[in-house]
Write a structure and sequence with these properties.
This protein is an alpha/beta fold. It is built from 22 helices and 28 strands. Among the domains are: 196 residues, Rossmann fold (3-Layer(aba) Sandwich); 181 residues, 2-Layer Sandwich (GMP Synthetase, Chain A, domain 3), CATH 3.30.300.30. Helix content is 39%, strand content 22%. A five-stranded parallel sheet has the order 4-3-5-6-7, with helices on both faces. It has a five-stranded mixed sheet with strand order 12-13-14-15-16, with helices on both faces. The chain has a five-stranded mixed sheet with strand order 24-25-26-28-27, sandwiched between helices. β5, α5 and β6 form a beta-alpha-beta unit.
Length: 648
């Protein structure tokens, strides 16, 4: 695609100036911004940044939620040939030090006081950080630090410059080329420092257009942008594809209002990682448990109908007259109201990515009439590698290679990708670039998988995580920890799982309960508890977890390759795994190696057969304070099942 993001902005503004480009909810009211107004905002911001000294090729960090003026700031930087670098707004201040120094950042654009405070805190460690611009002025009236100013002030200076130099902005945009660097995204850094993934306008827009063409997206789509812009998935859906297609992106008022905003907007195109769909299903199940007996009975009956006919109906297959009548009645009484309550009444295409999704979770949404599909990609591939066609969505695959993509599987079982959307390289890290990009253009995904007989890609796990059991009855059996973890995470009472087994004689797991779901479950049984730690160690809760674990074991017993991965022992952690404590990445992926070191005493206790183990852990609170939480944890055995073929 021989164009750039600012070129596309100006094209939309010229072709349909009054059409809505962005909406933002403010004080409970949706405010619309047209393409022409957005173009003018980008122009004044670009002129202001130029006047402040931003140079072509410089990096600009952007920290905050999805906000029109932050989107405009990214476009303004790109208009000048500078490179926006979105960072996670929920990261602690020290996590910004490496990206800022690595990219030699002088300019920062942030959302509000919280982000300003973080950058001012680390400024002594980031000598080059000279300019900090903020969008929301609340709480910042008395801040007098050098180089700190509002985006509104920057716009005012830009307006004056634009009047004096009316041709400057258009000339700056015209000087940009498709192969110029457009953005840099830092990986989540499950090990070591994060790496800066460099993408050009061509790579990002090529993949954005491939995805848009695949699902026939156009300017009439409505999208809710609520995931962090620093995650390339959100960036592709609400920035690259937005400018490629010209549809409307809606920015919620806050993270607390996303559920309400989702219902109000009724997006036609939706994207979320599996944990969001897990939370939705958990919420539905909690509400149904609190419903009256007749409503629970009706829900259970029609969900059985949905499971029987829904997936086939979504795949375009005939379900017969009786099936159509029953499903139609269920749609009237249950599925339609449920979709509306979730905010999915208008969704035409919904995607999930970032992690594997449990088959039951996937099938639940498709059964009630939501066209949920999986895609496969990464930051390095600009997301779109494989997509599922509308009538070929299956829970155990991630789809077929989309336009412009070649896939092959190495002798070691690693998936290799060749695509026009591959990264230009890792910033200032040629060694890491050489490790993932071959001389003939193949990218090492580090994912283990294979192409099935239907041409769909199946991902088993990360190559480095797929291991073997050693010793015991299952010596040499394959162990795929992510596969085991995801099967457990389907249960609404389980929020997070960390599985171990590589090089050991059995599989053991550490669980996090879903505090809301289990709390609701406990209250209905008149179980009192004083907080997460107390609830997690209840005998009744352990019995609930045991039932979930043994259901997974029974399921694994039917899988020829992974029957040996059944869970022998488990425990429920005394605290929730948290990114601020280093246990999760900012995209909420478990840092398995770090957790094994941090909780080595618990891992050892599981494998030594102990019945209980004391643990004390340092924690960091949201306000920056530190403390500790301690408990004596129970360790429980689980029943193992004979593999199905042996039992036959």
């Amino acid at each position: 695609m021989d164009t750039t993001f600012p070129h596309l902005l100006l094209a939309h503004a010229a072709r349909r100036p009054a059409a809505t480009a962005l909406r933002e909810k403010e004080y409970g009211i949706w405010q619309s911004l047209s393409w022409s107004a957005l173009a003018e905002m980008v122009k004044t911001l670009a002129c202001g940044l130029h006047q402040a000294g931003l140079q072509r090729g410089e990096h600009v960090i952007v920290v905050g939620a999805n906000r029109p003026r932050l989107y405009a700031s990214m476009l303004a930087a790109q208009s000048l040939g500078a490179i926006p670098v979105p960072l996670y707004q929920d990261a602690v201040a020290t996590e910004y030090v490496f990206p800022i120094n690595n990219a030699e950042v002088r300019f920062a654009v942030v959302e509000n006081q919280e982000q300003v405070d973080k950058l001012l805190e680390i400024r002594p460690d980031c000598a080059g950080l000279a300019h900090i611009y903020f969008d929301d002025p609340r709480g910042l009236r008395n801040y007098q630090q050098t180089g700190l100013a509002s985006l509104a002030d920057l716009q005012q200076h830009g307006e004056q410059f634009a009047k004096q130099h009316p041709a400057f902005f258009e000339q700056a945009v015209a000087s940009n080329q498709a192969d110029d660097v457009a953005a840099m995204f830092f990986t989540s850094g499950t090990t070591g420092n994060p790496k800066g993934v460099v993408h050009t306008h061509r790579t990002l827009l090529d993949r954005a257009k491939a995805g848009a063409d695949f699902d026939h997206l156009d300017e009439h789509e409505e999208v809710l942008a609520y995931m962090p812009p620093a995650w390339i998935g959100q960036n592709i859906f609400s920035y690259a594809q937005w400018l490629c297609c010209g549809y409307v992106v809606n920015c919620p008022e806050s993270s607390a209002t996303v559920t309400i905003d989702l219902k109000e907007i009724g997006p036609t195109y939706y994207f979320a990682p599996p944990r969001v769909f897990e939370a939705m299903l958990t919420s539905v199940m909690i509400r149904m448990e609190d419903a009256s007996a007749p409503k629970r009975a009706m829900f259970a009956y029609f969900m059985d109908i949905a499971k029987r006919y829904g997936p086939a109906r979504m795949d375009g297959q005939s379900i017969g007259l009786l099936g159509s009548l029953l499903y139609g009645l269920g749609n009237l009484l249950v599925y339609g109201p449920l979709r509306n309550n979730l905010g999915f009444s208008r969704v035409r295409v919904a995607y999930t990515a970032g992690e594997a999704i449990g088959p039951d979770l996937f099938n639940f949404f498709r059964a009630i009439g939501i066209n949920l599909k999986q895609l496969y990609g990464s930051t390095e591939t600009a997301v779109f590698v494989c997509l599922q066609p509308d009538h070929e969505a299956r829970s155990d695959t991630v789809g077929i290679p989309c336009a412009g993509v070649e896939i092959k599987v190495s002798e070691q079982g690693e998936v290799l990708v060749k695509s026009a959307g591959l990264l230009k390289g890792y910033y200032k890290n040629p060694e890491a670039t050489a490790e993932v990009l071959t001389a003939d253009g193949w990218y090492h995904t580090n994912d283990a998988g294979f192409i099935d007989s239907h041409g769909h890609l199946k991902i088993i796990d990360r190559v480095k995580d797929v291991g073997r059991l050693q010793g015991g009855a299952n010596d040499g059996a394959m162990f795929a920890p992510k596969y085991v973890e995801n099967k457990l995470k389907f249960f609404p009472h389980i929020k997070e799982v960390v599985a171990y087994g590589d090089g050991r004689d059995k599989v053991c797991v550490m669980l996090n309960i879903d505090f809301e779901a289990v709390g609701n479950w406990a209250e209905r049984r008149n179980l009192s508890y004083a907080g997460y730690t107390d609830l997690a160690q209840k005998t009744e809760v352990y019995q609930l977890m045991l039932e979930c674990v043994e259901k997974v074991n029974a399921d694994l017993a039917a899988d020829t390759m992974l029957a040996g991965s059944q869970i022998s022992r488990f425990l429920v952690l005394h605290k929730e795994l948290d990114a601020d404590d280093g246990e999760l990445t900012r995209t909420n992926k478990v840092r398995r190696g770090y957790i094994a070191e941090k909780y080595a005493v618990l891992v050892d206790a599981l494998y030594q057969g102990l019945a209980e183990q004391f643990i004390e852990t340092a924690v960091k609170f949201e306000d920056g304070r530190t403390g500790s939480v301690s408990a004596t944890l129970r360790l429980s055995d689980a029943k193992l099942f004979a593999p199905v073929e042996r039992a036959a």
